[in-house]
Write a structure and sequence with these properties.
The protein is built from 18 helices and 12 strands. By secondary structure, the chain is of the alpha+beta class. The chain has a 6-stranded antiparallel sheet with strand order 1-6-2-3-4-5. It has a 6-stranded antiparallel sheet with strand order 7-12-8-9-10-11. The mean pLDDT is 82.
Length: 426
Amino acid sequence: MKQEDTTGLQCLRILFGQFRHTVNFPALVTQKVLEKYREDPLAELMRLSADQQLLPEQISSGEVFQSYAGPALLRLKSGNWVVALNGRQIASGEGAVIADPSVGPQSLSVRTSELLDRWDGTGIIFRNLTPVDSRRQTLLASFVAIARSDNTHLDIREIMHEYAVGDTEVRGALFREIAGHYHYKVRKVKLSRPELEKSSSVFPCIALKKSGKAAVFCGLRKTQEGETQCVVVDPESEQFNSANRFLFLSEKEFEEVYAGKFLLLKKIYSLTDEDQPFSLRWFIPEFIRYKGIFGQIALMVTLLTLFSLVIPLFFQIVVDKVLVNQAYNTLNVLGVGVLVIIAFNALVSYVRSYLLLFATNKIDISTATKTFSRLMKLPVDFFERVPSGVLLKHMQQTEKIRGFLSGNLFFTLLDLFSLCIFIPFL
C-alpha cells in the first residue's frame, strides 16, 4: 500500500507510542485490519481506539475544540490523516502543533487557518486522553515530575488507566505499587528543619501537605538577605504547567502548609540499563553486549595457562624416561610436540590480543558517543564556565576506567582462575 493510504493507522501509532507505551501496535495491524481499513478507514480507527479504551468520539466540526484539549485525528481533504496534539490550540486560532506521517515523524507547527482549510470536517477525539487536573492527583503529578528528572518519561493518564485511578487521590499501598512498577523504591520519613539541610542527596522528593495533598520538594536555597527558602513545585498552583513552575516559600510559609513528612524516591537500575547514572555499573552493559568475545578471550587465556604446563612436563619426561633409557626417538617426538605447542601458543596469543583490542575499541567508541551525547545536553553557560582543558580531561576518564576493567581487573580474575589449575600440579 502507498503511504497515504495508511496515514490514519500511522497517526494512531503515534498516539499509542505517546499514551499507550505497553501496547505493541504493529502486532495489532494484521492483514485483516488492513483490509477493513481499506474499506472504511474511519470505522476501523474508531474500533482500534475503542479496543484500547481510548473512548473515541467522531466529530464533524471544530466546535468541540472549545472544550476539548486532548489529541485528535483529523482527516484532510486529500484523504490523508494528521494528529493534532492539542485540540484547544485549534480553538484559540493562534496556531497548532500537528504530526503528519506523510511528511515525516517530526512535529510541525502550522497556522490554524491553514489547517482548517485542509480539514474536511471529519475527525476523532479521545475522551480518555484529555489532560488530567493535577490539583486532583497531586501525588501522581509529583511522581511523574520527579521521574522526568531521572529521564523516565511517564504519562499520568496512562498510569491512571492501567491502575483504574478515579478522581480521588491515590494513597499508600497503591502508590507504592505504581512506583514499584516503574522501578522506584519509596520510603516515607519525617524530617525536621536541621535534617533537611543534611539531606540534599535525596532531593527531589515528595512533600506531604497537612491537607493530604502532595508537592515536589526540590531543596533549600539562601537569599541575598540570608533568609532560607524552600523550593517546591506544587501541582495545585497555577504555575505547575508553566516554564517557571518553582515556588519559593519562607520557612514559616512552608511549615504552615506542609506536615514535615516526605516520600523519598529512589530509581532502581538494572545492570543492563543504559540510562543509569555514571558509575562503574555504567560500563557493565557494554561488557555484557560483547560477552561472547570476552568469553572467547577467557577460553584462550585458559588454553595459554594449560600450554604453560607443557615445558615443565617436557623436562620431567626427558629426565625420567629419555635420559635413563636413552630413548632418542621419544626425545624427537617430544621435541616436535613442544614446537607445535609453542607455535599454537603464539597463534592463540595473537588472536587473544586481536579480540581484546577489537572489543575494547568498540566499548571506547560506544562510551565516547554516550558521553558526547550527554555533553551536548548541557546548557551553553556550562561551557562558558568550565575550561576546555578540564572538560577534555574529564571526558578521557571513561577510557581509563574501561582500561582498568577490561585490563587489570579482567586479567586478574583470569589469573585467579589459573591458580586453580596450577596449585594441584604444585
